[in-house]
Amino acid sequence: MTPLFRKPVIFAFCACLILFSSGIAGAQQTLMMATTTSTDDTGLLDYLMPLFTKDSGIDLKWTATGTGKALKLGENCDVDVLLVHAPPAEKKFVEDGFGINRRQVMYNDFVLIGPAGDPAAIKGKTVKEALAAIRAKQSVFTSRGDKSGTHQQELALWKAAGGPMPEKEPWYVQTGQGMLATINVAAERNGYTMTDRGTFIKYEADHKGNPPLKILVEGDQVLLNQYSVITVNPARCPKVKADLAETFSKWMAGERGQQLIAGFKLLDKQLFTPNANE
Q1: pLDDT grade, residue 20 (50/70/90)?
Q2: What structural domains does the chain harbor?
Q3: Which of 13, 183, 242, 246 has the fewest CB atoms lying closer than 10 Å?
Q4: What are phi and psi of 96, to 5 degrees?
Q5: Are the C-beta atoms of 231 and 249 separated by less than 8 Å?
Q6: How far apart are CA 79 and CA 33, in angstroms?
């Protein structure tokens, strides 16, 4: 009886050991990413990541936040890779030794949006003229106010427009929230805001093509919005899975990732333009 009893126990133990080992191997194939809210809000990551996992065998998990906070997560060794859109801050991040192998992968542009009635009469103006008109009219302007890439670019545009910075003005509303939430606050206040085009298209699709806020200013060269992938530096963060991060980075910049980015559309509109080869 004893041998017959032992065999199932040994088999069960071996099976458990195999499952436990598989679990460890699976955990080693999980990549942690910090990214900006626009890649999440638009649905781009939900579209790309199952295909990346299928191609690579790597499970990617992400935190969507402002680029400033995403870079801080990289500095603190809390993630393996970044997908962000604040080039000056990104370059400093790499220069300071926190990141390696920064690759541009795609872009869209920023737009100024507001109510169709356009109380500050900014439609068709340059960005500088539009911001000056909003300030003069003291029309409500909602800002993310969260040190995100969008917020940093918005502040740079206010500075370039001249005059005092608007943070202490009563008409300037800092939400401390993501882009879609900030757009919704602007709509509730019959005000203006700046958003990336991809998030605006998502907002437009959520309103079946007829959103309360409309694009009023676009096409200015200063509105370019570049996205890049950065691997967190393993010399600073020994536990970072730099090999998996590089696999993701090369996939995004490679032919497969670039084609998929180009093919991602809402309302038959392209949200991001691939530019890894430029």
Answers
A1: very low
A2: 33-108+225-274 (3.40.190.10), 109-223 (3.40.190.10)
A3: 13
A4: -80, 0
A5: yes
A6: 5
